[in-house]
Amino acid sequence: MISAFLVLLGRPGVDCYCQHESGAAVLQLQFLINEGALVSASSDDTLHLWNLRQKRPAILHSLKFNRERITYCHLPFQSKWLYVGTERGNTHIVNVESFILSGYVIMWNKAIELSTKTHPGPVVHLSDSPRDEGKLLIGYENGTVVFWDLKSKRAELRVYYDEAIHSIDWHHEGKQFMCSHSDGSLTLWNLKSPSRPFQTTIPHGKSQREGRKSESCKPILKVEYKTCRNSEPFIIFSGGLSYDKACRRPSLTIMHGKAITVLEMDHPIVEFLTLCETPYPNEFQEPYAVVVLLEKDLIVVDLTQSNFPIFENPYPMDIHESPVTCTAYFADCPPDLILVLYSIGVKHKKQGYSNKEWPISGGAWNLGTQTYPEIIITGHADGSIKFWDASAITLQMLYKLKTSKVFEKQKVGEGKQTCEIVEEDPYAVQMIYWCPESRIFCVSGVSAYVIVYKFSRHEITAEIVSLEVRLQYDVEDIITPEPETSPPFPDLSSQLPSSRSLSGSTTTVASEGVTKDSIPCLNVKTRPVRMPPGYQAELVIQLVWVDGEPPQQITSLAVSSAYGIVAFGNCNGLAVVDFIQKTVLLSMGTIDLYRSSDLYQRQPRSPRKNKQFIAGLTELNDSPVPQELERCKSPTSDHVNGHCTSPTSQSCSSGKRLSSADVSKVNRWGPGRPPFRKAQSAACMEISLPVTTEESRENSYNRSRSSSISSIDKDSKEAITALYFMESFARKNDSTVSPCLFVGTSLGMVLIISLNLPSADEQRFTEPVMVLPSGTFLSLKGAVLTFSCMDRTGGLMQPPYEVWRDPNNIDENEKSWRRKLVMNCPSPSQEIGDHQYTIICSEKQAKVFSLPSQTCLYVHNITETSFILQADVVVMCNSACLACFCANGHIMIMSLPSLRPMLDVNYLPLTDMRIARTFCFTNEGQALYLVSPTEIQRLTYSQEMCDNLQDMLGDLFTPIETPEAQNRGFLKGLFGGSGQTFDREELFGEASAGKASRSLAQHIPGPGGIEGMKGAAGGVMGELTRARIALDERGQRLGELEEKTAGMMTSAEAFSKHAHELMLKYKDKKWYQF
User: Fold this and answer.
1) What is the pLDDT of residues 29-80, one digit of tens each?
2) Short-list 5, 842, 4, 703, CA closest to 325
3) By three-state DSSP, how is residue 944 classified?
4) Is-contact 576 586, C-beta < 8 A?
5) Could you tell me where the Low complexity compositional bias lies (predicted)?
6) Which of 17, 310, 541, 629 has the largest CB neighbor count within 10 A?
C-alpha cells in the first residue's frame, strides 16, 4: 500500500476505489468487523475512519497526530478503543466512535525498566492477550517486549532479545507468543519463563555444529501463528531466506508440522493476512487461506490442500503484467462477443488453481438497469493484447492474444535493425483497430509492422503470409535554388500504385559497412504454425529499410472488412494493402498523393546539404512567430497520439533562409487553391512533461535511437494521422456513392482516395482493385484526428462491414459460400442536392462538410491556446455527438452536425504521457484512460449513466450474524484466565482517564460525517438531511434495543422454565434426601 488510495474487494463484482485527499501513502488498515467501518493509517500521521455502510465510502472522522509519528495500530475484536503505537515508543488510545484521543497513555519510559539506558525504539506491535483483555502486549523495535497490565498501569513482565523485532503473534491460549527477527529467526516465548525464549529456530538457516549459532538469514518481516484443532499449527511468514541465494525471488513460507513449503512470488510482498474460521482470538483459529498482497498483484493461497494451490483471482490484477501501451473501448457491442471470447479464452487459462470458490465473499453486487455489453482492449509492451469484459462496472479478462508468436525469436546478437528503432520491447503494440461486427482485428507494432487477424473457432496449422512494403519518401524545403535548375515534379505515370521504393534520400552506411536495404525489423516465421481457436494471423505487413534508413513507426491504421483492405501511414506516406488477395495496392509518399495539385509546391528531396545550412522551419514571410502561437502548438505526435516523429525530438524553432524569388514562387497559387499556411507538421513539435524512472520503460516503445536521420531532415514531412473507410462521394460531380478512403495529414489536409472494387462478389478474389487519389482536398487547422459521416437526416452512418463467418468451418460448402456485406449507404433520393455530411476534427477545430458539393456548413474552433489529444464521434441517447479531450484537461462535447457546444468540463490536465497515450472515448457517454501503470480509470459524461450509477454500485457492507463464542467451561474459566470482565469504557473514558492534550492530536470532521455536513450544508435541505440521518441512526438503535430485549425475554423465559422444573423435582424431598 504505497499509494494514497484504497481498493475494497469482496465477492466477484464487488470492487470499490476510494482515495485520501492528502495523497499520503497508506500504512495500515483495520476493519471494524461486522460494523461497516474501516480505520486507515497514513504516512502523514493521520487516522481516518471510513463509513462502509454506503455505496460510496466516505471519511467520517480524521485524527491528525502533531508531535508523534504513527507506526502501528491494533483494534481488538468487538472493541471501540484503538491502540496506536508511535515512533517515540508511546502507546495512545483512540475512541473509534468519536475519534477522540483518550487521556490514557502508556509512555515508553514507564514500560521499560528504569535501569535501561537506551530508548527501545518505535512500537512495532500491539495486541491484547487472548487470555485476558486487560493485558496488552507491546513490541519495540530493539527486541524488547512488554506485557502491560492496563488496570494497574504497570508492566507485568518484560522480554529482551538481542535481535530487532519485526512482528509478533499469539498462540490462541494466550500462554505463548512468537516473534520474528531481523536475523531470519523465529523465537517462541512462554509467559511463565520470560528470561529466555522457549524455542529459537532459523527456518532457512544452514544447520551448524552443536554449540554454534545458526547462520543468519534475511529478516522475517511478518509471522502469523495459527492453531488447528485436529492438526499441527500453521506458522506462516514472509522473508527469512538465506543470503547466499542472491537471485531468489520474494517468498512466503508455510510451516505445517515438519513440512516447510516455500512459495516464490513474482513481485515483492507488501502484506499478507491469514483467513480463519473464527474472529475470536482465544479459540482454535482453523486457518483456511492466506491473502498475499504483492506490489503488483493479489493472490490467495488455499491452506486446506497439501500442495497449497492458489485461487483463481476474479479481479483484473494483471493489467500491468506488461506495461500498457494503448487502449480501445467498445460500448454496446454485439452481445454474443463476450460469450464467444470467454469460451475461447477459458481454454488457454493456467491450470492448477484451487477447485474451491473464491474465499473473499463480502458485499453484494448489483447489475443496475444499464447492462449493455462493453469490451476494453489493451495492448502491451511485450506484444500481447488482452480483451476485457467491462459490463456493469466490472472488469474480467476474456481472451489474450500474443502477437509475438508470428515472429521468430531473436537470438543473442541479432535484431540490430530493430534496436536502431526502439530501445527495447520490439513487439510493443502501438495501435489497434477492431471491427466487432466482422471480428476483423488489426494491430500495428513499434517495429513498423501490421498484422491482420481473423477469428475462427477451429484450430488450424498454416503458413503465415507476409508482405514487405517500401515506404520512404523525404522532401526538403528549397534552400535558395536557382529557378532554372529546380528539378521538375514527378510524372503522373510514375505515381500509379506500386510497391516500389519511393525514396529519394541519400544512402546511409551501417556500422558493419553494408547498406541496409529491403530488410524488415523482425523475421516472420516461415514454417507452418499451429494456430489455436481465436484470432489467427491472416497477413503480416512489414515496412523495410530503404537505402540505409529505418522504417518509420506507423501513425494511422484503418481496416475495412467489406472492402478487404487495410490502410496505414506514417510520416513518409501511405500504404494500402488487399488482405484478401495478399497484394500491395498503393505505396506512395505523401507528396505524391497530391499529384499535380501539391498545395505546398515541395520538390523531391535532393542530396543532403551541409548541416550548417539546415536549421528547421519558419514562416514563409519575414514576420516573426509570436510566442503565444508557439506555446499553443501541439506536441510531438509521437508523445501524444502515437505518431512518428524524429528520433531526437528536437524542436523546430530556428528557420531556413529563403530568397524572395523562392517565396514568390512558393506562394504562386492556381485558381481555387486555399491560401498558404505554415508548413509545419504537428509531428515535429514537442511538449515537456515529467517522466518518472518507472515510466521510462513504458514510453520506450515509441522512441527511436536511429541517428541516421535527424529531426531536422524530417521537418517538412507530412505524416498521415487519420484514415477512414466509407461509402461516400469522392468528387464534386459524383451522383452516387462509391468506396472511398479519407486520408488526414499532420498539416490539416484531407485527401479522398477512390477505391475501384470488382462489382461481382466472385471477382473480388481474382480481379485487381484500383486505388487512385481523386484530387479532392479539404483543409483544417492542425493535424487531423478523426472522421465520421452522417446522412441527410442527421443519423450517424457506420462504415460498411462484412458479416462474420468462420473461415475454417468445414461444415459449409465452399461453393455455396458468399460474402454477406452491410454497406450502410445513404438512402437514395430523387431530389438534387447533397446527401451526406462529413465530420472532420483536427487538433484545433472541427468542420462539417456537405457532400458531394464539398460545402463547409459548420466550423467550430475548439481551442486556440491548447490542442486536442483525442477526438471521436460517439452515440449517446440515440444521437451522435463529437467528444474531445484537450491537453489543458477539458472534456468538450459538441452536437452534430451543428457543432454546438453542449459540455465543457475541466476534468484532468495533461500531467502524464500515459494519460495522453491511453485516453479514448466510446458510445453511451463513457471514456477511459490509464490512471496508473496498474489501473484503468473509467469516466462518464452522461446524465443518464450518473443517475443509474448508484444502483449499479455494489453494497460493501452486508451485515451477518456474529458467531457465538465457544463456551470455555467452568474450570477453564476459573483456572484458565481472568474471571472478571474488562470494561474499557471505565478505564479509558474521560471520567477516569481525563482528556488528552489538544496539541498532541487534532480532530478533523470528515465529509461523510454529520460534523462535516453541518459545516458544508445549510438551509432547509441541510436540516432535512441531518434529520433523516439522525432518524436512521435512532431507528437503528431502536432496532438493536428491540433485538436485545427479545433476547433477554427469551433467556428469562428459559430460566423461569428451568427453575420451575427444578422446584418440582425437589418439592417433596426431605432435607436429608439432598
Assistant:
1) 999 998 999 999 999 999 999 999 888 899 999 999 998 999 999 999 989 9
2) 703
3) helix
4) yes
5) 492-508
6) 541
pLDDT digits (tens, 9 = 90+) for 592-614: 888 645 444 444 443 333 333 33
User: Position 644: which residue type?
Assistant: C
How many alpha carbons lie under 13 Å from residue 115 in its C-beta half-sphere? 1
Distance CA 1038, CA 202 (A): 55
H/E segment holding residue 973: helix 970-975
Adjacent-strand bridge partners of 955: 364
Per DSSP, 198 falls in state S
The secondary element (H helix, E strand) that includes residue 31 is strand 26-32
Cell of 1062: 427444578
Q: Which of 641, 952, 1001, 935 is nearest to 786 (CA)?
A: 641
Q: Is the dihedral of CA 272, 278, 281, 284 positive or negative?
A: negative
What nine digits make up the cell of 167? 512482528
How far is Cα 178 from Cα 252, in angstroms, rounded to an integer? 17
pTM of this prediction? 0.76
Cell of 47: 487516522
State the sign of the Cα–Cα–Cα–Cα dihedral 213, 217, 222, 223: negative
- Asked if 616 and 712 touch (Cβ cutoff 8 Å), the reply is yes
Conformation bin of residue 231: beta by default, left when phi > 0, alpha when psi is -120 to 50: beta
Classify strands 534-543 and 466-469 as parallel, antiparallel or unpaired: parallel
**Residue 740 CB coordination number (10 Å):** 25
CA–CA distance, 658 with 616 (Å, rounded to integer)? 12
N- to C-terminal Cα separation, the chain? 67
Q: How far is CA 841 from CA 10, 624, 868, 899, 901, in A?
A: 43, 28, 9, 11, 14
Residue 925's nearest CA partner among 872, 968, 886, 858 is: 872
Nearest Cα neighbor of 434 from 566, 548, 336 is 566
Q: Which of 402, 355, 359 is nearest to 383 (CA)?
A: 402
